[in-house]
User: Fold this.
Amino acid sequence: MSFTLRAVIVGAAAAILFALPAQATVFMTTLSGANEFPPNSSPGTGSATVVVDGNLMTVDVAFSGLTATASAAHIHCCMTPTTPNRPVAVDFHDGFPHATSGSYHDTFDLMDVSTYTTGFLAGGTAADARARLLAAFFAGTAYVNIHNANFPPGEIRGQLREVPEPMAAALLLLGLAGAATLRRRVIARAA
Assistant:
């Protein structure tokens, strides 16, 4: 395949990718006792995925191996992994399993004040709380925590981190392919 044809293909693919609508933003974490502050030796494990699409936030949590039934679970905000528990921003009060293993799924309206705890709202509006929560997600300072009687401050915890959006990864790969093609062409001319 000629250099010109490759350049046309890469350019067309990039144009198509840029024309596609924006995707939801995904944040994920692995939950463990080692992520707690201070760390603990819990055998419990889990994972959490938070998807923000406009004003909707979908939360999926799966966990197993807790040493006692879960008594509470929520998103805390806004501190680094090596700091004690911070205020609860969003409580998973409806339907979180009071069990040692289970899964949870719920969707929250980020523009509804009832999504947030009173402490996190602190007299502000839902828009203020949404802005602070999203800023914490992008900064990596929000985390999911599951509590129980054996570990009242939390048995397993994990900082939420943004997952690279698939289109950005595709553009990066296209760019790297184009750079490699250009490099080969320059090397071939020099030889």
